[in-house]
Design goal:
- There is one protein chain.
- The protein has about 425 residues and is mainly alpha-helical.
- The chain is about 50% helix and about 10% strand.
- It has 15 helices and 8 strands.
- The strands form 3 sheets. The protein has a 3-stranded antiparallel beta sheet with strand order 1-2-3.
- A hairpin with a 7-residue loop joins strand 6 and strand 7.
- Helix 3 runs antiparallel to helix 4, helix 8 runs antiparallel to helix 9 and helix 9 runs antiparallel to helix 11.
- The radius of gyration is 30 Å and the shape is elongated.
């Protein structure tokens, strides 16, 4: 009899606790919005463990509705709150979410999402979807921002995406696709070929400017005549030209150009002209005068662009990269016609390689790292230092090649410091 009374005492329920007809237990309470919430458990012990977590959430300021909020819900909130992104960047983020994140984990409750879940999801993207590191970088940017919003708004305590990408890259042998600069001989071959070739000489000015300034593609194609001072030899970089697929509600759909502010505030800068860059601008001006070619477009109020196609419209990155592919092919064919073993050939490269090439030339010339950062418009000095370290590593190797030649009795091959 005493034992029965003891068992009965053990099952005394607290305020908010109810035993249901099927024998399971329920706990109810009012959240901050005075909305009644419920949790359930098979046993009273399990229910009270859940109650403890609920009380801890209350003490820590975690929102009750977080238990019912999905990743999709937070994405919609993020979309409405996100400001300060260029339109093409925002469209790319939305594409990444709708294509990769939403279909996979969009319906997951954010309160149940753990670091291991994010890691498992990223492994799936690598192993099953075969996505490149750069694509996963973009996906991580969006997902991390969404989950950080959940942290900032007290839906969860920690961001489950923290450091997951870093760990993933260590675990997977990604092809990094390191951007190799053109060597000095490759650069000379490229520019000399353009300057003298009757078919490709019209490409010389824009590519020479890119090689000699390190401008990003959109910065170069977006240049207007008013942005350059030929007398002072200075280029004012104050905007960028972008071409992308517009998906925003209320805007004209399709692919077309926009003028945006520069990539970062640090990208607003002035770049001095080397002599061959100034010459390239003058050649472009003379060519357009000879052909009676004029800018025929106005983009977001900007017009009088410098680099035009034969219709007077602006150039874009895709067209330039396709031209580079043709130039590489024909230039190398010409080198093989001259010799069965050409001394130098053009490697496969893109417009961005020309920016990296200019950076490399500055490093090789011993230009101060801070000056390099300013000229390139890098916000973070570590970006510049990483490039500088790569270049100086190659320089050290070439110096020691010369040193080895010297020890072998070939002092003529020693590389001058």
């Amino acid at each position: 009899m005493a034992e029965k009374r003891k068992d009965k005492a053990r099952t005394v329920l607290k305020t908010g606790e109810v035993q249901r007809k099927n024998g399971t237990y329920q706990y109810s309470w009012m959240d901050g919005q005075l909305k009644r919430r419920f949790v359930y458990a098979k046993t009273l012990a399990d229910l009270r463990e859940k109650e403890k977590r609920i009380q801890k959430d209350k003490c820590d300021g975690i929102k009750t509705e977080a238990r019912y909020t999905t990743v999709d819900d937070l994405y919609n909130l993020w979309q409405n709150l996100k400001r300060g992104l260029k339109n093409n960047t925002f469209e790319n983020y939305k594409y990444m979410y709708s294509t990769f994140v939403g279909p996979s984990i969009g319906n997951r409750r954010v309160s149940t999402l753990r670091k291991s879940d994010v890691k498992k999801y990223y492994n799936y993207l690598v192993d099953e979807r075969n996505l490149k590191a750069s694509t996963i970088d973009n996906i991580n940017t969006v997902l991390h921002q969404i989950l950080q919003l959940a942290v900032d708004d007290d839906y969860i305590r920690k961001n489950p995406a923290d450091n997951v990408l870093r760990e993933l890259k260590k675990a997977h042998p990604f092809q990094t696709g390191e951007k190799k600069a053109l060597t000095m001989k490759e650069q000379e071959l490229f520019l000399d070929y353009l300057r003298t070739h009757p078919v490709y000489e019209h490409w010389y000015p824009i590519f020479a400017v890119m090689v000699g300034t390190g401008l990003r593609v959109g910065e170069a194609t977006g240049l207007r005549w008013m942005d350059i001072d030929l007398e002072e030899g200075m280029i004012d970089v104050n905007h960028t030209l972008v071409y992308y697929d517009h998906r925003t509600e209320g805007s004209k759909r399709g692919c077309y150009f926009n003028v945006n502010s520069t990539k970062t505030p640090a990208s607003m800068r002035q770049v001095p002209m080397l002599d061959f860059v100034k010459e390239a601008f003058e050649m472009e001006k003379q060519k357009q005068s000879d052909l009676d070619l004029h800018c025929t477009v106005t983009i977001d109020g900007y017009t009088d662009f410098i680099f035009l196609n034969r219709f007077g419209k602006t150039q874009n990155q895709s067209t330039l990269n396709k031209a580079i592919k043709r130039i590489i092919r024909d230039c190398n064919d010409e080198q093989f016609e001259k010799s069965e073993e050409p001394e130098v050939l053009l490697p496969n490269f893109s417009c961005h390689t020309l920016r990296h090439t200019f950076t490399t030339r500055m490093c090789e010339a011993g230009v101060n790292v801070k000056v390099i950062q300013d000229i390139l418009g890098h916000t973070d000095i570590s970006t510049t230092l990483n490039i500088y370290a790569d270049v100086t590593k190659e320089l050290r190797k070439s110096e020691f090649d010369g040193l080895e030649a010297y020890f072998n009795g070939e002092p003529k091959n020693v590389v001058n410091a």
